[in-house]
Design goal:
Layout lengths: L1 E6 L6 E8 L6 E4 L14 E6 L5 E13 L2 E10 L7 E2 L1 H5 L2 E6 L4 E6 L3 H12 L1
Parallel strand pairs: 2-7, 3-6
Antiparallel strand pairs: 1-2, 1-5, 4-5, 5-6, 8-9
Amino acid sequence: MVRVAMRSKTHKEWHTFILIVDSGASYTALPRIDAEPLGVVIRDGTRMDVSGVGGESITAWLHTVTSEIGAMRLRLPVLFLERDDAPRVLGRAGLLRDFGVILDGVGQRTNFVHKTSPRYKAIQSLFNEV
């Protein structure tokens, strides 16, 4: 899980959410209830039909949301799902394709390392040793 701050499109204020990091999810997804505080008019986005692990199809609307994870500021593609009870999920698009993810189970921490950073190259060398 990771803390993500997202900027409201209308009020320019920041709202913080806890998202599940899901490397299997193509997009970051939020429940419909999160759209209003972020100043998002759901149906102004691009309509998509998506499905999760259970295979159930859900209508979603794609928007771009300015977000911060730690010191990184990103413009993430975010799906707003037509459900209020959907989990908040951090997917690959806009983030996981450009960053390595370090999960520290002992310290209960998550860190993102950009693919062009020297730290990322050091992490890759660890994987190459295995």
